[in-house]
Amino acid sequence: MGVNAIRPDHSSEAIAKRAASSLRQALLSVLLIALALSSCSEHQELRQNNDPDRYTVVEDVLWGSPAGFDLSMDIYTPKSGKDAYPVVVMFHGGGWLVNDKSIMHQASAYLATHGEYVICNVDYRLLADNNNSVTLNQIVDDAFGAVLWVKDHIGNYGGDGGRIAVTGDSAGGHLSAMIVNLGDRLSSAPFSQTSPNFQPSYLPAGTTAEEVAEQGGLGVQAAILSYGAFDVYQGAVDGFESLRNPFWLVSGSLPRGLFGNDQNVTEHPELYRALSPAHNIPHASERLLPPQLLTVGTDDPVTTPASVQAYFQKLELAGHPVSYWEYDGRSHAFLDSGSNRILGNSFEADAPEALDVMIRFLDGVFASASGTF
After folding, report:
1. How many domains does the chain have?
2. CATH number at residue 174
3. d(Cα 66, Cα 193) in Å, to the nearest integer?
4. What pLDDT, on a 0 to 100 scale, did the predictor assign at position 245?
5. In which domain, by residue range, is 96 found?
6. Is the pTM of this model over 0.85?
7. Cβ atoms 173, 229 nearer than 8 A
8. What distances in angstroms separate CA 68 from CA 5, 64, 71, 192, 339, one per listed residue?
């Protein structure tokens, strides 16, 4: 009797739990693959969601070439005739492994149609690029560099470099949070255990990373984080770097460490925490972060409402201005272009309500910041 009591693995209840856990993992893998293979049907856009008569767009604007890898952005400018507009810098999702800025085309067009903002829809390197050799800190370097480029050049496209919001979904939400939380951790030295700082892929002419940090060059005025991945450390513990993460296979790559094969989360946890916004929230008494809006679908199995709520609570406890919005009945990736039958998402059906919430948040931030809008 005592032996049976300490061997629960052989009980029918335990077997059922393990089976349920395996089923949940399998279903999550299917959802992730579906997310990566989401079909884009831009030609079916309704005019109320995308009215090209209300904005101009300049596509594939080269903003950086880290290690010779060209990166571009699409820039949307309203036609309403203002001298300058606040700017939204947008980063797409895809687990840092798949997708590009095209997955955010419809969201960008919607914001340009319905909002008074210049939209910068940004490409960055993916882990699978350069023969599956890009590291996660280099992707953060790209996000930092994109913001610095926008501040330097957006005046040429009708934008105000002093009024910038960053936004992104899933992996893009992580990058936006890194800009907000760790935009002051810049260095000319390569990212390492002894110097877990970042080298932006673009720097203003004649400046160093240290000078940009000292001058607050990566400061932004608002952030919208949609179903973001805020704890890279925990994600690695849970198997992000293994075949349990199907994005590796979808990207055509074999799983490996986020920082290469010489580092792992067990022996080098500090590297993973350095890339985790959840582990790098300053107290407001030290550095006040800009207003932030966190959004997530109530039925999201990838970045769950519980995980987003936990991050929201950490920001609140640290004294920062932050809002939270749950999208009832929605799963992951409700902002993506096109449709995904497996996830049950459609841009036309799901994205506009969420984008309207984002616009109202931005209008409130920039109206209160400037006094007029």
Report:
1. 1
2. 3.40.50.1820
3. 22
4. 97
5. 2-370
6. yes
7. yes
8. 62, 9, 9, 22, 34
